[in-house]
Amino acid sequence: MIKHRPRRPLLPLLASAAAHLALAQAAPPAPAPAAPDWAYPQSATHVQVPPPPGFHRPSRTFDTPLGLFAGQSDIGAAVVPGSATYDAATGQYTIHSAGYNIWYTRDEFRYLWKKMSGDLSLFADATFPDPAGYGDRKAVLVIRQSLEDDSAEAMIGEHGVGMIHLAKRSSAGASMDDLQYRFGGALAHVLARRIGIEKHGDSIAIFVSLTGEPMHQLGPPINLHFDAPFYVGIGFCSHLPDKSDTAVLSNVILKEAAGEMHEQP
After folding, report:
1. Which of 17, 51, 98, 179 could be disulfide-bonded to 80 (CB atoms 3.0-4.6 Å)?
2. Inter-residue contact 234 to 140 (CB < 8 Å)
């Protein structure tokens, strides 16, 4: 008499084989690019320097509308991807971003943007939820010619330590230059209540409300030409190449006209 061995159920065997095959075929995740040494910020043992000539990373762009804005980009593709959310009930944009800087000949930051032409006014309240973040992090209102990391641009930047500057990159790949406004004394480490940027032809000026008074122009304007259409929006940079931080921009208003700042509290 021939004895038959009990048969193992077929379905568990197939499931086990499929699992092993999937593990064998799955590629290991690609390692994140390392932040280069030149990108790390000022410290007791280190000085941040401009990127090497010709250094670029293609920006990552998402045509995903968010509030007032038509799309989002990780300009310069920081080694830690950024993200952003919008709360329609509170009117708050929360932006998470790493990025070594918005400076020198190229930038790294999360950017929420809209394509526009002609004159414009953009203003917002900016705050940093983490009081311990790097002092040179900055929330920005930016006009850019393109989404490339070295684009011509004009911006108002509000730093974590309270400094405000109007900065420009006059052409693609050029070095940034700026006007800096440092608030000392009683306003040291105090953020302006509200910031704005206004484009009137090729004239671009910044506006502030330090404590809630009507917005007023801060310093002289700069002159910079943008071909239409160009990009307008808000952004944030942690100033740390491999560490994300957060900024919140609220009560954001974007108008297709200049001369709107003077009416804003």
Report:
1. 98
2. yes
